[in-house]
Design brief:
With 297 residues, this protein is α/β, with parallel strands linked by helices. The protein has nine helices and ten strands.
Length: 297
């Protein structure tokens, strides 16, 4: 399910839910539950714990620490089982490198989708501490559904995606994510809007954004396969300006309950690249009033 053809539809057999038991993580759980029920998927719930023993402290001070950690891990397992009651989840509680464990689980379990919440940290805190969610959707070998701090307000049926916004700034790299968006739209009989945002020109640029609108819209229309016309009438929008702001504005105006964006696989330092620039993707996830699905280009 890494790059779908529309006619195949979305196949969700295994969903990996990531949690640290925070309010942000708990907000994503209903989406994992809703998708699991809709697609008959198996849920794997992963909680990464800090190490029970600090190797830098003297062994004499370790007494009772590991036993207490095991007790806490048992409580966390029971909490996750209760959270996904009736779905027979596979509970995974581990210590160590978060991203290494995620990569291994996705590969070993053939995970189709990761679902996670995020606090949407921004500004100076994000610069120094990074964003776990951002690094997950950069690295993961499968699509990632991220539920930000403002998503889900007023939502009564999570994971019912009836108004989908697909957003891009690069139509030449948009196809895999768009195929996924169209597949979800077909599965949910959803209305879909395709949005391309053209950046403001730099100083001295001869070609102005308005000159590109018609050509860009034509390129956007060519991305939609002809067979999609039998079940949907997509809208096509081309906007000029700040990408994150335009995506968020259109999503709010269209009352989107899912935003789909393409991202590049991680290369280089954390936060290095997305087919929407990483700062744009992070801002959309942090501020959107609906979940954001990121799919590798």
């Amino acid at each position: 399910m890494k790059a779908l053809e529309v006619r195949h539809g979305v196949q969700l057999k295994k969903i990996l839910f990531l949690t640290d038991f925070s309010e942000a993580a708990n907000a994503a759980a209903p989406y994992a539950i809703g998708l699991a029920k809709t697609y008959g998927a198996k849920i794997l719930a992963l909680h990464m714990r800090p190490p029970a023993v600090n190797p830098m402290t003297p062994p004499a001070s370790w007494y009772g620490t590991e036993e207490a950690a095991e007790t806490q891990a048992g409580e966390e397992r029971r909490e996750l089982e209760a959270m996904f009651m009736g779905l027979s989840p596979k509970i995974i509680v581990k210590e160590g490198d978060l991203h290494g464990h995620i990569d291994a689980i996705v590969a070993e379990e053939n995970v189709d989708l990761i679902v996670m919440g995020t606090h949407g940290r921004s500004g100076i805190k994000r610069f120094f501490l990074g964003s776990v969610a951002e690094e997950v959707f950069r690295r993961a070998d499968c699509p990632v559904l991220t539920v930000g701090p403002h998503a889900g307000r007023g939502i009564t049926i999570p994971a019912e995606f009836t108004r989908i916004l697909f957003a891009t700034t690069n139509t030449t790299e948009a196809k895999p994510a768009l195929n996924y968006a169209l597949s979800l739209a077909q599965e949910n009989q959803a209305h879909i809007t395709l949005l391309h945002v053209i950046a403001e020109p730099g100083a001295g640029t001869l070609v102005q954004p308005d000159d590109l609108i018609d050509a860009t819209e034509a390129s956007l229309r060519k991305l939609v396969p002809s067979e999609a016309e039998s079940w949907c009438v997509p809208d096509f929008l081309v906007e000029c300006g700040d990408a994150a702001k335009k995506i968020l504005d259109v999503a709010a105006h269209r009352k989107a309950n899912l935003i789909v964006m393409g991202v590049h696989k991680a290369h280089g330092f954390p936060g290095a690249a997305t087919h929407l620039p990483i700062a744009v993707a992070h801002e959309v996830v942090a501020k959107a009033q609906c979940p954001v699905l990121t799919v590798h280009s």
